[in-house]
Amino acid sequence: MSSTPHRVPEADSRNTATIGKAVRIVGQIYTKEDLNVDGDVEGTIESSDNKVTIGTTGRVQASVKAREVVIFGQVQGNVEAANKVDIRREAKLVGDITTARISIEDGALFKGSIDIRKPEPKPAVPGADTPAKPTPSAASSGSPASSAPAGTPVNR
Amino acid sequence: MLLQEKFRSIFNRGSETPVPARAPSLPSPGLSFLKPARKDATSTRQSRGLEQFFFNLHGQVGLSILDLAGASQQNIDFLTSLGHKIYSANVLHSMQECFGSDPSGQTNPGRIEYFLRSNFDYPPATFDGVLMWDSMQFMSQALLNATVERLADIMRPQSYLLAFFTVNDKVQEVASYSFRIQDNKTLLVTELGMRSTGHVFNNRSLEKLFGKFESVKFFLTRENLREVIVRR
């Protein structure tokens, strides 16, 4: 039996770049791995297939584009995430969001617009000509705002 | 259904249902200037005004809705599920930043302009609906007039605004609430704390305030609220 101590692989940190607390970057950041921002960034951040996390000490004045964006700190700029934007309680975001899904905790400060864009369905495989299933008509699906209010105005 | 549950459901059919189990989320740290809220400060209630607001938007998608109570998961989920784009700002927090907690500070024209730029800096005719909730009743007359004028500018013709005003004219402080949309006529309402109100609102003063708008409808509620739907 070997006496060599077992080493735990540092899986997370190995695939994640970090901009430290004391670092300030002005310019464009493009990365092919996950990115943690704990310092200041001014410009653009792009990590299309990965996750960008703005830490509690992170201050970003930049547009952010990623697969997933998690915000604990402060962001001023537009955020675009193919998958999800996650805004945590202490976060402050001023800018417009475009994403498929959004999660925002109570207490977070957000000013801007939210545009939910579901990912487009993958194109059908050529040659597989299965007939399309009939979709239920829009009229039959109950919309939350489909009924007229029962009350009448009290006064005019 | 158990007998006990059946009785409970019968007696809870009123317009206001206490929600003790799922405790309200804490008020935003940015709203710490408000006087503390009651302990049992969360309830659900029916809102005719909200129902009318969504009835007016029914059958349309891709509308631009401005929610001025600060971003909340429920409101985002509900509005985006209807296919609309939501714009969010927290007017109460912004009022505190611009004017402090003293309503008399709300008369400075420079500060009013800064407040309008911070919250309503949009091109003309941008919005199809505006959810003001109860924030207008905490504005001074000068701030209120300027805000309504700006709203008239950024709302599209025939769009709608929903606002709540306290009916009781003998109080100088009224509770401020967060409003979470549960469905097209139900709100989860959480008291955030007490705040000074600038003035008394009655039907006549509200009609005068929204004089530039096409119509004003009022709904009185059991909670001493006047829910107002204004058509641009």
Overview of the structural elements:
The complex is a heterodimer of chains A (156) and B (232). By secondary structure, chain A is mainly beta. In chain A, 3% of the residues lie in helices and 47% in strands. In chain A, strands 5-6-8-10-9-7 form a six-stranded parallel barrel. The C terminus of chain A is likely disordered. By secondary structure, chain B is α/β, with parallel strands linked by helices. In chain B, the strands form two sheets. Chain B has a six-stranded mixed β-sheet with strand order 4-3-5-6-10-9, sandwiched between helices. A four-stranded antiparallel β-sheet of chain B has the order 1-2-8-7. In chain B, β5, α6 and β6 form a beta-alpha-beta unit. In chain B, α4 packs antiparallel against α5. Chain B is globular, with a radius of gyration of 18 Å. About 10% of the residues of chain B have low confidence. The chains are: A mainly beta (156), B alpha/beta (232). The interface between A and B is large, with 31 and 42 residues. β10 of chain A pairs antiparallel with β4 of chain B, so a sheet runs across the interface.
Secondary structural class of chain A: mainly beta
| Biggest sheet architecture of chain A | 6 strands, parallel, barrel
CATH superfamily of chain B: Vaccinia Virus protein VP39
Please tell me how large the radius of gyration of chain A is. 22 Å
Sum up the structure in keywords:
heterodimer, A: 156 residues, mainly beta, disordered C terminus, B: 232 residues, alpha/beta, 6-stranded mixed β-sheet, 7 helices, 30% helix, globular
Summary, kept brief:
The complex is a heterodimer of chains A (156) and B (232). By secondary structure, chain A is an all-beta fold. Chain A has one helix and ten strands, in the order αββββββββββ.
